[in-house]
Amino acid sequence: MKKEKIKPEESKRKKHFLFLLPFAFCLLAFLTGCVQYDLGVTFNSTNRGEIVQSIKLGEQLTAFSSDTALEWLNSIERRAGQLRGTTRRISDRELTVTIPFNNGGELDRKFNAFFNPIDRKTDISATTTAVDFPEFKSAFSLKQNNFFLVVKNRLSYDLDLRSLEVISPNANIVVNPGSLLQLEFRLNTPWGATSVTNAENGISPETLQDGHQLVWMLQPGQINHLEAVFWLPSPLGIGAIAIALFVAGGIYLKSRMSPPVAIGNRPTASSVKLG
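Given the sequence above, the corresponding structure tokens read:
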């Protein structure tokens, strides 16, 4: 009876799985709910807002691999500083990052620059051993259309978190990615926003704060797509209306306050009496 030959690809895959199996059990045992990551974009106006991130590492993670966790937080601080952001260390396990932006184009540029550094290798400090962090595909887009008095904004974000999965040769997930990472995306706008969920891999948000905040619970191990439409006042349009009203008001007040000019016949020289 002939033995069935094992394909090189399948053999390599099984070896890779056997190599990851102990690590997977370590994750299951020690890293349940190891990272809480809240990511938010807040629009205070059309020309002012900020990207806010809150990262909290579980005690199990810092105890199991404190050097790796510390280096990851340090890399986040370095990237925020390159984008003129500020960071605040709440503890050795918790960090808050704030990156301001002045318009939609700057938001687009800074968001993608933070989550897609040009060279990931240089993001690791030279004083520590390089660590292979999971790579996530992140694509953020904000399209704006000016309608004179208001600006229509269409925000779209795609985040591929499939790299968090540890998969067996039979395509069964060994580690549930949801137990490793809890990730939220928040959108805060002055007039509220409307979610668009008809796209592929689209997820639905929760609405909070009387409709001014949308919260998406992103799913680790999957491709996540979120999209929303919201309106903001246009400073240029409102400014133009204000200037036009100011000029019109000035002309009206001037016409009301100026005395009427008498129009009549000028006296002739013969009509002047001589003394």
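The first helix runs from residue 8 to 30. Try to locate this feature in the token string yourself.
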